Amino acid sequence: MARIKNIELPNEKHVVIGLTAIYGIGRNLAKTICENAKVDPAKKCKDLTNEEIIALRNEIDKETVEGDLRREVQMNIKNKMEINCYQGVRHKKGLPVHGQRTSRNARTRKGKGKVVANKKKVGK
């Protein structure tokens, strides 16, 4: 079982797909890492040798991933909130940050719908 950056790579998946389990590594970066480490991307994670795992670790150490990347992203958000820029204000209010509409969607950011008192339909 391959373990890189305290993440266990899924055994039954190809190396390229398995590397995407690490925060900050997508498909393109995974392909580049495999090429630089001279590891066959189509190989299953369970079939990796110790030398290949070490080569992958050395390549991944050159990138900003996992804890460092998470910390960096949180610091960027915190900085925007402190300087009261538009995105920071949206983060504070718990609203979508990237210009999405909020009138009919955005339930992921806004949470469950709030009940408004005395909002019954008037029947004739």
What can you tell me about this protein's structure?
- The chain is mainly α.
- It folds into 2 domains: 3-62, Helicase, Ruva Protein, domain 3; 67-110, Ribosomal protein S13/S18, C-terminal domain (30s ribosomal protein s13, domain 2, Irregular), CATH 4.10.910.10.
- The chain has helices at 15-19, 27-37, 50-61, 66-82, 86-93, 107-110; strands at residues 3-4, 7-8.
- A hairpin with a 2-residue loop joins strand 1 and strand 2 (7-8).
How are the elements arranged and paired?
Elements: E1 3-4, E2 7-8, H1 15-19, H2 27-37, H3 50-61, H4 66-82, H5 86-93, H6 107-110
Antiparallel strand pairs: 1-2
Helix pairs in contact: 2-3, 4-5
CATH architecture grouping of the largest domain? Orthogonal Bundle
**How many individual helices?**
6
Q: What coarse outline follows from CA principal-axis ratios?
A: elongated
Total separate domains: 2
The major β-sheet equals: 2 strands, antiparallel
Question: Cα distance, first to last residue?
Answer: 69 Å
- Per CATH, the class of the largest domain reads Mainly Alpha
User: Which bin fits the share of residues in helices?
Assistant: 40-55%
The CATH topology of the largest domain turns out to be Helicase, Ruva Protein, domain 3
Average pLDDT figure:
91
Low-pLDDT residue intervals, each spanning 5 or more residues:
none
Strand order of the largest sheet: 1-2
Outline of the structure:
The protein is mainly alpha-helical. It contains 6 helices and 2 strands, in the order ββαααααα. The protein is elongated, with a radius of gyration of 22 Å.
